Amino acid sequence: MIITVSVITFGYQYFASFYRASAREVKRLDAILRSLLYSHFSESLTGLPTIRSYGEIPQFVRDNRFYIDLGIIPHRYESEVSTVNTWEEIEHNELKIPGP
Predict the structure, then answer these.
(1) Which pTM does this prediction carry?
(2) Which terminus of the chain has a lower count of CB atoms within 10 Å, N or C?
(3) Would you state the torsion angle of the CA atoms of residues 16, 21, 26, 30, taken in this order, to the nearest 10 degrees?
(4) Three-class SS state of 55
(5) What's 26-62 look like in SS3?
(6) Where are the domains of the chain?
(7) Distance in angstroms between the alpha carbons of the first and the last residue of the chain
């Protein structure tokens, strides 16, 4: 019995630490990609007269769509992450395991 509980506890701690590191990395990537999008959009608004005068509007629209698509990538797995968060909360509440 003690061996089983220790194996389950060890496995839970291992997967919880793996999940926390992965969630942190996804948030970091999301922040980086949003920063790229906001920076490009801000530069486009600042240089709008120049962009119009050189007729480069289609180029900037393409670039903006590209950055928007990049920003969507981290949110594709958002439902799985929220499911794991819910499961982890239930485990902490039911088993009275101290949280992270």
Answers:
(1) 0.53
(2) N
(3) 130
(4) coil
(5) HHHHHHHHHHHHHHHHHHHHHCHHHHHHHCCHHHHHH
(6) 2-95
(7) 26
